[in-house]
Each structure stands twice: as C-alpha cells, then as structure tokens.
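Hey, resending since the last one bounced:
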Amino acid sequence: MRLQQAFSLLSVLWFVALSPAIYAQSAKLHEVHVEGLKNLSEAQVVALSGLTPGAQVGRKDLQDAADALVRTGLFAKVNYKFETHNESTLTVTFAIEENPRLPVSYDNFPWYSDSELDDAVKKALPFYDGHLPQAGEVVERAASALKEFLSARDPKIEITHQVIASPLSEGSEQQFHVEGPVLKIASLEFSDPKLSQDLAVRAHLSEIVDHPYSRIMIDVFLSEQIRPIYQQQGFLQARIGPSEVRLSMNPNQKLPDAIPVYVPCVPGPAYRWKGVEWKGNSAISTITLTNTLGMKAGELANGQAIEGAWERIREEYGQRGYLEAKVTPTPEFDDAAHTIAYQVAIVEGRQFRYGSMTISGMSLAGERQIQQAWMMKTGDLFDKKVFEDFLFNLESHREKIFGELPVHYDTVGHFLQTDAEKGTVEVLLDFK
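The structure tokens again:
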C-alpha cells in the first residue's frame, strides 16, 4: 500500500511593489533566488519550479511555480516574494523548508545492480542522490523512470513503492517493488564460512530458500537470525549485507527460475565490557542500576544481553511508579582496546500512584472479580510489572482472575491514562 501524505498548506507572501496595471498583468522575469537550501541547489529548485528567466510571468505563473514545488514532496513549506525593476522586470525569491528524505532501496530487482537502477532514476531526476521524500511527484517520477528502464525486459511490468522500517539500520526507507511473478531464491550463501556451518543458521535457511526473491525478506532474516549470532559473540560492529545476486551469465538473457543470493558478512573485532556511567538518576542509586545491569568489566560484551539489560533498567523504574522514565544509552567504542563503555542519560519524570480502574465490555459479575483480583489500592505507588502480570492473566490464564465464572471475550484492550498534575494513573480495560 502506498503511503499517502498530506502536504502543508502553501503560504504566499505578496509584496505589492508593482503598479496595479503590472500587478494584474505580467512582467519579464529577471532572476529567481532560493533561500533555505540544504540538500538541493538553487538551480535545481528553479528547474523544479518551471520558471525560466527572461519569460513573461504574471501572478498565476508565480502561484503555479510555488504549487509545483509543493507537489514535488521535497518541501514542507514554500513562501515567496517578488520585487520589480523599472516596472518592467521582476525578481522572485522563494523561501523554502525541505522535507526530510529517506534512503531508497530496491526490493526485488535481481536483473540489475543498485547503481544501474540509481542511474535510471537520475536520468529523470538529475538531483537524485539515493534519497527521496516520503511521497510526492518526485517519488512517482522515480517509479515511472524505473518502469521505463525495465520495460525492455517486460513492457507490462508495474512498480510500486512504500515507506518501510529498515530492518538492518535505524530509521525508514523508500522502497520500490516489482509487482507480479518474481524469481525464487535458489540458495543463500555467506562470505563468513562460520555462518554457513552454523547449525542454527542452516535450520532457518528454509525461511528464505525456495521463496520469492525479496531483499526486504532477506534483510529481515539477517536482522532476526544472523545479527543476534554476531551480537552474542561480542561482534558489536559486524557489517552484514547488503545481499547480492551473483550471476555469471549475459544479463540480457532470461534468468533461471531460481537465483543464488550472496551475503557479505564481516564480523570485525569482538568487544569486551568496560563500564557504564549514569547521569540523571536520583530515585535509583548508581550502585543499584549497575547491579541491575549485571555486566562485569572485562567480560565479553554480549550485545543481546546488553539490550536486555537496558530493558531491565526501564522495568525497574516502572515498578517504582516512574512510568515515563526515559533511559538513553550511548555507546563509546575503543577500537584500539576492543572495549565498549556506555554513557546512560536518564530522565526519570514524575512518580505516579494508582488512581482507579475503568472497565468496559464486561459483565457486572466479571467486573467484581477483576476488582477483587487487582492488587493495588488507590494511592499505592503504581507498579507497572503488577499491571503487566495482571494483563497476562486476563489474556492467557483467565481462571486466575475469574475462577469458575463464565466469561466471553476475545481480546483485552488496555491503556494507562496518566494525570501529570495529580500524579495518578487510571487503568482502562476494554473487553471485546
């Protein structure tokens, strides 16, 4: 499904320096300038606007140019002003704010390399640098360029796009996808021979092999099955992928029904734990936090265990009523000594107490059973673990809450409504 985006309203500043006659008619465009540039050049923005110095332009032309810039999807805001020279020529200045752009990925294009696909897009979009906005005309033009490029292979081919979370890195990406029948994966090989020999990896290869070729599917596999193996062994900066289709045949010939996929993997050095420095904590002592973390200096830095340790710290705060506590760890790698230390910034926020519970979709008898089984009383410090355990019983062990009382529901909607002024939290349960 394509991501639809509503563009911000265009605000237009008119500086009425023209005489009424010129304002209502047109003037010769002398220059176009752009303020607020970050990724694009002035010449690129002018080209996207459709304005040409030397042409006769009127109010509608300037409005159309501003609208054209907004429709590209590259800009969050577009304002403009103009001034006249001798009442016969004018200079226009656009004040722009660029939209964030996402890295582009190609999901299932086994016939061509990324560089070839990038070149095809760049022919249609000269400013293209491997990044595009979330939506807008430039994204559609990129899709059309890819379709035209692939039409020699299949004139009926269709290209779709969507914004997805990147499996192997932080953030999102703009992914292009070929619709219709695709080739299958014949094999998945790794440059690291240890991975090819790993029994756990071999056991999971069936999730990829013989399935339709898709780089996003491969990336998810690498993130869920391969990265944890490296993380557990202290290879915290292992480079995994991107996957490649390696063929020795003529690219213009028909590909086989199943294709081999190769994944470059470089584990790098194994890191050891050096230590942690806490900042911003007052409700929980540094000693308690360090003990909860459970890491010892000099031991292998197990990346999976480290991630689990940060979650334990958040849970520790949640059990003490700090429902909005933020724990932000920042790693510091010593590549010479192969050690890792962390600076951890903590914003504890307010401590909350239990206020009340609101239940919907449950019989009166069922509500009474829920209230009797609930362990916290009004005014108690709110323990998030108690809430999560209670919710688990409602979902998976109903007999612990209702006993032999017959109840009928499929799902339990739940929400914690905090009141920052009162320092209370209301538990909302909705049974359906």
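The mean pLDDT is 89.

Sorry for the duplicate.
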